[in-house]
Amino acid sequence: MKRLGVNIDHVATLRNARGETHPDPVSIAKFVKNSGADSITIHLREDRRHINDNDAKKICSINGILVNLEISTNPDIVKIALKIKPNFICIVPENRKEVTTEGGLNILNNKKKLKNIISRFKKKKIRTSLFINPSILDVRNSKFLGADCIEIHTGKLASLVKSKKNYSNELSKIKKCAILAKRIGLEVHAGHGLDYKTAKILSKINQIKEFNIGHYIIGESIFFGLKKVIKNFIKIIR
Ligand code: PXP
Description:
This protein is an alpha/beta fold. Helix content is about 50%, strand content about 15%. The longest helix has 16 residues, at about 170-185. It starts with a strand and ends with a helix. The structure holds pyridoxine-5'-phosphate.
């Protein structure tokens, strides 16, 4: 069965807009779990623009909630992540000026660093995933570096679909990567820019086990409520 991970960074963004405590990401994490999601995704950014260290620590210590912590390869962030021990880690690229994670990791240029970080998390029995572009070479290298999973960046597909452009080439790339990854023993996840339509398109790829979705869920919740939107996504992906 395909799983839904809900990224709640945008709840922290809303809280931070006032510099106060509401809406509280810890309460939202519990609410998301009780609404049927399989896991919570949070990104502890180097600039702490949304989730902060205290949020991450508290969310990772809630009983019965699986937490997927996104981190860059920054040594300080890696150290914090090893200390707070989430259930899952997803290593992502981070650029200072980006609004959101713009693409997958540059695996080729960071092989040694990634291999070292992955082995440190795996020693603590933390499932580790690499956020990659839909590239066959990156899939092979992810396996070589010891990752348990890959998360395929779906941002390009999502923007092609939204702008009503031809997306068949991008979809085929994602599909080929998913098939290869599963065959060589990597679990396949997908995320970035997904909405109902793109989640439905990608749900047809059997090899994808997990979707991580954030911005659209939180935005759509303003109209229909968080529980309803989560339930809609669960129905779509399963
Ligand atoms: N997966 C990863 C690895 C991400 O970095 C993000 C964005 O933070 C998401 C999923 C969720 O993307 P979106 O908010 O566009 O749904």
